[in-house]
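User: Please work through this fold.
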Amino acid sequence: MEEYKFTKWKKWEYRDDLPEIKYPGVYCIAISETDLSGQDFRQDFNLREEIVYFGMTNHQSLKNRLNQFDLTISKRRWAHGGADRCLNEHRDYEKLLPNLYYSVYPFESKIDIYDPKYIRTMGDILKCENYCIAEYTERFNNELPKFNNPKSPKLPRDLRNKKKE
């Protein structure tokens, strides 16, 4: 597998700090009681077991997609399927925040769905996400990252109207 250029891990609360999030790309979410801040995306050249989700965006910025994840886990708006699975397991936003980290692989490109160069970039983004999920699955006993797994339950609809618990 080619080496992907993910940023060092950052705490979720600082997700707007990276200038690269203005681009489309692949993002990775980890939940860890160990502080991952500033550590490399890979640990000993391997993916981290703490990774719970890989996502991508190619029609909007990483900032917008990470914001949609946050809107969902904070129960402000239902805007992200993977975050909905995360919310089902971690219903207390304030308890989750200190252990939530992200890393991004931005694809520096202007979003223009009519530009052949950008159309190819969209394919590269999708390939990168799929390769990351495949590599994680190979490394960790043929298990998908927890919230990429479609069998992982989403928050039940009857609980969606309830605000923060």
Remarks:
- DSSP finds four helices and four strands in the chain.
- The radius of gyration is 16 Å.
- The chain has a mean pLDDT of 89.
